[in-house]
Structures are given as C-alpha cells and as structure tokens.
Amino acid sequence: MIPVSYYLALSAILFTTGMFGVLIRRNALVVFMSIELMLNAANLSLVAFSRLYQTFHGQIFVFFIMAVAAAEVAVGLALIVTIFRSKQSIDLDQMNSLKG
Amino acid sequence: MLLEYAAIATMIFVTALVAVIAIVLGVLFGPKRPTDKKSMPYESGMNPIGPGTRRVPVRFYLIAVLFILFDIEVVFFVPWALVFKQFVSQSQGFFVFAEMTTFIVILLVGYIYAWKKGALEWE
Amino acid sequence: MTQTDFFTLLPAILLTLWACALLLVDVFTPGAHKGRTAFLAALGLAFTLGVTFLQPGEYTGFNGMVVRDGFANFLISLFLLTGLLGVAVAYGYLRRMGIERGEYYSLMLFSIVGMMLMAQATDLLVIFIALELLSIPLYVLAAFAYPNTASEEAGLKYFLLGAFSTGFVVYGIALTFGATGATSIAAIVAATAAGVANKALLLSGAALILVGLGFKTALVPFHMWTPDVYQGAPTSVTAFMAAGAKAAGFAALIRVFSSAFPALAADLTPILWALAALTMILGNLVAIAQSDIKRMLAYSSIAQAGYILMAFVAFGSDLARPVAISAALFYLVAYTVSSFGAWGVVISLEKEQGKDLQIADYAGLGKKFPWLAAAMTLFMLSFTGLPPTIGLIGKLYLFRAALQGGLYWLAIIGVVTSLISAFYYLRVVLTMYMKDGQPDVARETWLTATIVFSALATVIISLFPAPLFDWASRALLMVMK
Amino acid sequence: MTLELFLFFTLALIALVTAGGMVFSKSAVYAALNLVTNFLSVAILYLLLDAPFIALAQVTVYAGAIMVLFLFVIMLLGVETLRAEFDWKKIWLQAVLALALLVEGFVMLFQRMGQAANLPFNTASVLTNPSEMAKVLFTDYLLPFELTSILLLVAMIGAIVLTKQVKKRSL
After folding, report:
1. Most buried pick, B24, C256, C267, C354, via CB within 10 A?
2. Which residues of chain B have a CB within 8 Å of the CB of A85?
3. Is residue D133 one of the residues assigned to a domain?
4. Is residue D56 part of a domain?
C-alpha cells in the first residue's frame, strides 16, 4: 500500500499551485479555477485521511464540500458574467473604479 | 480491490485505442490533396461570416445554473435511494423520508421562485 | 430529529422558514407594495428575537454538531439586532437608490441564519457550511446595485476573496481532521487530551483556519480588498456586513480556538499577537490618509477588529480566557451599535451615483443639522474610545482582558494606536463643525430611528454598562467533552 | 514497483502537469480543460483510496457540472476577450515570496510529522461500500444535509437576482 504521506504531498503541491495561480493570475475566471484547484487539493487530503482512519467522516465532508462548491460557483460565475456585461472585461487589474 | 475496476479501465483503454488507431491510420494512409476550396470551413460553399467564436446570450447561463443546482440535488438522491429500503426495514423509514422531503421542499421554494421570476421562460 | 435538536436550532429554524416564506410572499406581491417585504422581514427578526429570549437555555443537538449555550444565545441576539438595524437602514436607502428588490431582505435573513449557525457550530463541517451560508448572500448583496460598476466590482472582489479564504479554511479543516481523525470539536479535544493527535498537523490546520477566518474578519495582512468592498457595496449592505460578518467570524474564531485548540496556545499566541498588533497599527495608520468616508470607516473597522483580537491573544490561559471572551462580546455589541449609527449618518448624506461620500462633504453639517452632527460626533468618539460612549467602556474591558493575559506591550500598542485614531475620527468632527458647507440629508423615518437608537444605546450603555457586561460574562462556552 | 504505486505516480504526474498547465495557460479554455483532466485524475485517486462514491461525485459534480459551467461562461463571454496577460515583471517578487513561504511551511510540516504519517494504510478497508457511507450521511449528518439545501436555494436566488434583469440592456 501507498503511505498516506504520498497523497498529502500531492495534495500540498496542488494546493500551493492553486494558491500560486490566485496570486499571479489577473483573469477572474482563471483565478476562480485556481480556487477550485485549492478546494480539490483539500478534498484529496480529506479522502486520504478518511482512508487512514477508516472512517466515513472525511468522505462525507468531501461530498458536502462539492455541493457547497457548486453553490459557490453558481453565484461566482453569475458575478463574473454581470461584471463582464458592464465592463467588457474580467481582468482584475482593471477593477479600479474603487480607490481612496 | 482495484481489479473490480479492471473492466471499466479496459473499456476506456480500448475505446481510446480504437479512436487513436482510426485517426493515425487516416493521417498515415489517407490521400492529402488540399485545394483552396477544400480547406474552407464549410465545404458546401457558404462563406463564414464573422469570427468563429461568438458570444452566447446570457439567458443560457441562467438555464445552465439552474440545471447545475438541481443536478446537485439529484446527486444527493443517489445515496438516499441506495439505503432507503434498509432504513425502512429498521423502521426508520419515516424519519429518512421526512428528511428527504424537507430537503426537496426547501428546493421547491427555489423552484417556485425561479418560475415566478420567469427564469425558466425563454422570452 | 428530537425535541432537543429542535430547541437547539429554534432561532435558526424559525428564521429559515420565515426567509423562505418571505421570498415567496415577495414574488407574489405586486410591484407597488414591495415595501411590505421589509416590514415582514423586520417582523420575522423581532419574532425570532422574542422567541430566543423566551426560550433560552442550554441545548446540544444534532449529534453534538450544534449547541445553544450562553455564548450562542448572546450572539444570536446580537445578530438579530444587526438584522433589524440592517433592515431599518436599507428600507429608505434602497428606494432612494432605485435598487429596491424584495430578494434583498430574504438574502439578508439567510445570511443571518448563517451567522447564527457560526456561533452555534461545534463541528468544523457545520462551521464551513455556515460560513458559506453567511457569505454567499453577502456576495450577492455587495453586487446588489448593479449595473453600478463599483458595486459589481465590490461583489466580485468580495467573492474571490471569500472563496480564496474558504480554500484555506477547508485545507485547515482537512489537516485538523488528519491530526485527530474527527471534525467535531469534542472529538478534537478528546484526541488532543489523549495525546494521539499529531501536533504538527494540528498546528498547521489551526493556522490555516486562522488565515481563513482572518480574511472574514479582515485582519491585516488578510484585509487586501476589504476597503474596496466596503466602499463599492451599497452602503446599507456595508453597514450590515461590517457588523454582522465580522461578529460571526469572531464567533467562530473564539469558539474553535478556545474550545478545540487551547493546547496549541504556546505556538498560536505569537501569531495572534503579531496579527493583532499589525491590524491595529496598519488599520489606524492607513485610515488617516483616506478622504472618502466609506473607505475611512472601512479601515476603522479593520482597526477595531485588531482591538477585539488583542483581548483574545492570551486564549491559552484559563484565567484570561473568560475575561477575554466577555470583553470581546461586549465590544462586538459596542461596535455594532456605533458602527450602525455611523453608517446611518453616511447613508442619510449619500446621494445617487455615490455622491457626497467625501469627508469634505460633511462640512457645515454642525450648523445645518446639529442633531445629526451631534450623533455622528458621538459615534466618532465611541470609535476612538472617549467618554461618554460605549466605545470607551468596551475598550477598557478589552485592555483589562489584555493586561490579565500579560500582554503589556500589546496593550501599549493598543493605547498608542487609539490615540492615533483620534486624529482621523476627530477630523470628521472638526469638518462638521468648523468648516462651512451646504450639506443636504435625506429624511427617512426608519433611518432616523436607527441613528437615534444607536446614539441612545451608545450613551446609555456607557452610563449603565453593568447589565450588558453581566450578560456577556455569563455568556460562557459550553465545555466540550 | 507494484501496480498501485505505478498508478499513483502516473496519476500524480498527470494531476501536477495539468495543475501547472491550468495556472500558466494563456487561454481560459485551455485552463478549464487542464482543470477537467486534473479533476478526472484525482477522481481515479479517490478510487485508489477506497472512495468510489466520492470518485463518482467528483466526475459528475466537479468535472461534469462545475467545469461545464466554467466552459459555458467562457463561451458566453467570448473566448478571444480572455487572452491573458500576466506580467512576470510585475509579480515575480510576490510569486517567489509566496512560493518560498509555502515550500518552507510544507517542509517543516513533513519533517515534524515524521514517521507518524508514513504508516501504511490498513489493508482491510471498510470504506468501499457506498451504502454504508449513505447510512452515516443520512443519520449523523442530518443537519449539514438540510443546510446544503438552504445553500443551494440561496445560490439559486443569487444567480437569478444577478442575471435576470437583463431585459433592459441588450446582450
């Protein structure tokens, strides 16, 4: 069997990649996708730990995270569509109508 | 344990293989004599108007989103249906049924709302 | 579901049902009578508040996933009050800005349900779902004034920031689960006590959860977009989320850290110390440079979060913790009341297209509208922590808690930054009284009522703080076994 | 090397490459397709971890529903307008800092975790049966289950509020 640390390492790298994407990308859609990647990495850890402890708690947690992520995506993409309609852009660097 | 999935894996592999073989054979042995007419997007003679990628109207989005949300609802039905009979046999059927009914009723509120708002209409 | 389950979540269940009914009532109400929705929402909140008072007590429900203890009851009441004030400031404002839609109030009620669950949750899964239930309506509300670009941007930024922080919370929960094999606080406590928990994993998990909740409560350095969001969102929404979302974030922070992670205090206290110090210093310093009143208040709200966190830094000490929690609760009330008052004044001056939101626009207010200016002065004094306001009493309690925890340097930083903050708060007062101008305000019954209520509460509670503080002191966390 | 280990490394490689591809792709469509592949490879990892139902949900919910919605929005907004734009000169400092910080964090984490997490899994697993999971889900997790429906309702309201009133403006 594969040790759990392999899965944890993979999950950690995926999480970092996602976080990195959020920090370096300026396209709102790609930023959002990077956030999904972060959630996905967390899910992988949860399922791996669930396997380690032989309990369903982790798996069920992941199931709820998926449902919640779907709800979040529905609203998030609606926001992106809305802003695109008025600005014709989803570049975060152009979101500068708010300044002190 | 993994062997249980061997059949599915084999199927996916074979399907992919067939597709790849078909494409590769076509590329290798098919005659290639391109002409201007042939390389047009529509060989039937229509000239393409405007760019190939066009924006889709926003109302599609609303339909898609409502689909997704109800789709998630259905994903919860699957495990429920899987164990409902077991719960009934443990005389917990009513509880689990009421549980799912509450779930559906709450989403029904959303359905009525969407209906009355005209979100399901195709203007 | 048993009766205990039902009573545990009674306020949340009532409010959820009410919000669903409100949604349907609104859809079937013809356009001319949309004002009813606001009154119905207020009625629902008041009713739930009444039931919460009549049916207090301690319950544990849903397999220990939620509890109703003194802490939860206190915060539930606070959130319902926040909701009432939120409806009152929104009613006339939405109409004036031409964004009156019935969904506003339903979404607000759902968000309050999320906040209440944050205060009640004793399982990390419920905290996660409650966090989303609280945030998703707020994302929509922040963008509620679309096609106003500023509001849309605020919505998108708040959303991306919120989703990003959710990622941290989830990963933190995953690591905590990895350390202990459970997500319920009671089981985490048990695993930690038995010494089977992997400390490195647990610590990383706690730190990541802290980052996630830090975004929610707008602690420096996780405050990046908060000023933008507060500035761009419709002001009634800003008022609601400045008070509600922050309090809910602290509710979860206090519950999780003082119940589940006291064993990690030695490692976490320095982190919290740094966060509190940074938040107080940066929030107050940057606020000085602001010329827009909404942005100024946004940085001020960041700074206020720093003071609350300051009291809580020594959460590991059994002696300091109860003092810190009651001080934090008291200050949350103080902040809610004063901040709703201040935002109410901002709302009454605001014109369409975001006009009259500069601090300079407040010139002449003292002459033309002496009562309004007096109220605003009171709220500014309360933020600064000067008499005769609830802000002073609240800050005294916070400093006392910090000193009890042995955080002398942090308390000194707190005092110094409070002095600095006087500079920008009192600048508003000076502008109102010393400069000439012709400001114009909207006269709306409910808005006036909110400002009067906030002003009275700010003064009266400062004169008689004992009952509220007693209540906050009794608002203890249920001990997790 | 066992079959399982081989599978793990193959899938991990796919997941890492597609994750990187997502972050660095110039076009939003490629980013989305990379992410779909990533989700699918993680779904197979869930199978390796004895979580068939989660694997199924990953494919239907994540790869099937969420990512389709993403692609849909990319189409909706028009692909050509999304060509990206990231300027290494502007962001290299924060990128390097963030990366260094995280690598540092994870190295520390894994060092301190030490042997504890290197334990192999139990070989006999009770987790593969989805109906066992469903039993726990519908008894112990009653509250989160109902809360999810409220959350979906809120998302529905939000999406409708934000996109419905488009009649006045043309698009």
Report:
1. C256
2. 58
3. no
4. yes
Summarised one tens digit per residue, pLDDT across range D9-63 is: 899 999 999 999 998 888 888 899 999 999 999 999 998 888 889 999 999 888 8
Query: Are the Cβ atoms of D31 and A64 closer than 8 angstroms?
Result: no
- Tokens 């909140």, residue? C45
Domain total of chain B: 1
Q: Which two tokens stand for residue C365?
A: 């207010």
* Whether the predicted pLDDT of D84 surpasses 60: no
Residues in CB range of C52: below 8 A, 6 or more apart: C10, C11, C73, C76, C77, C80
Compute the distance between CA of residue C299 and CA of residue C285 in angstroms, rounded to an integer: 9
Relative to beta strand C66-68, strand C59-61 is antiparallel
User: Which of C195, C199, C207, C209 lies closest to C178, judged by CA?
Assistant: C199
Render each residue's pLDDT in chain A as its tens digit; 100 residues.
Answer: 678 888 888 898 899 889 888 888 888 899 999 999 999 999 999 999 998 888 899 999 999 999 999 999 999 999 999 888 888 778 777 777 666 4
CATH of the domain at D40: 1.20.120.1200
Alpha helix stretches (DSSP H) within chain D: 3-24, 28-48, 52-57, 67-77, 88-113, 130-139, 142-164
Contact of C180 with C203, CB cutoff 8 Å: no
Q: Closest Cα partner for C102 from C32, C23, C42?
A: C23
CB contact under 8 A, D134 and B79: yes
Q: Is residue B81 part of a domain?
A: yes
CB-based contact C43:C110 (threshold 8 Å):
no
Is the residue at B123 inside a domain?
no
The upper half-sphere exposure of residue C93, i.e. CA atoms within 13 Å in the direction of its Cβ, equals 30
Q: Does C24 touch chain B (CB under 8 A)?
A: yes
Query: Secondary structure of C78-121 in the HEC alphabet?
Result: HHHHHHHHHHHHHHHHHHHHCCCCCHHHHHHHHHHHHHHHHHHE
Give phi and psi for A59, each to the nearest 5: -60, -45
Domain hosting residue B90, numbered range: 2-117
What is the pTM assigned to this prediction? Answer: 0.93
Which long-range contacts link C399-402 to residues 24+ away (Cβ below 8 Å)? C399/C311, C400/C323, C400/C327, C401/C311, C401/C312, C401/C314, C401/C320, C401/C323, C401/C324, C401/C327, C401/C328, C402/C310, C402/C311, C402/C313, C402/C314, C402/C324
Which residue is closest to B74 within chain A, CA to CA?
Answer: A67
* Residues A29, D31: C-beta atoms closer than 8 Å: yes
In which element (H, E) is residue C61 found?
A: strand C59-61
The count of domains in chain D is: 1
Residue D41 in any domain: the answer is: yes
Q: Do C117 and D147 touch (CB under 8 A)?
A: yes
Q: Identify from D2, D62, D125, D142 which residue to disrupt to test chain A contact, counting A C-beta atoms within 10 A and taking the largest count.
A: D62
Write the pLDDT tens digit of every residue in C13-22.
999 999 999 9
3-state SS assignment for residue B35: coil
Nearest to A28, CA basis, from A78, A73, A94, A91: A91
Query: Within a domain: residue B32?
Result: yes
Domain of D35, in residue numbers:
3-85
Please indicate, yes or no, if residue B122 is contained in any of the structural domains: no
Quick count: other Cβ atoms within 10 Å of Cβ B81?
A: 12
Task: Report d(CA C160, CA C155) in Å as an integer.
Answer: 9
Phi-psi region of C67 (alpha: psi -120 to 50; beta: other; left: phi over 0): beta
Are C24 and B106 in contact (CB < 8 Å)?
Answer: no
Contacts of D78 (CB under 8 A, 6+ apart): B53, B54, B55
Q: What architecture is the A4-89 domain classified under in CATH?
A: Orthogonal Bundle (1.10)
Closest chain B residue by Cα to residue D169: B58
Whether residue A71 and residue B69 make contact (CB cut-off 8 A), yes or no, is yes
Q: Note which residues in 59-98 of chain A have CB less than 8 A from chain D.
A: 59-60, 62-64, 66-75, 77-82, 84-85, 88-91, 93
Residue C355: what are its φ and ψ, rounded to 5°? -85, 160
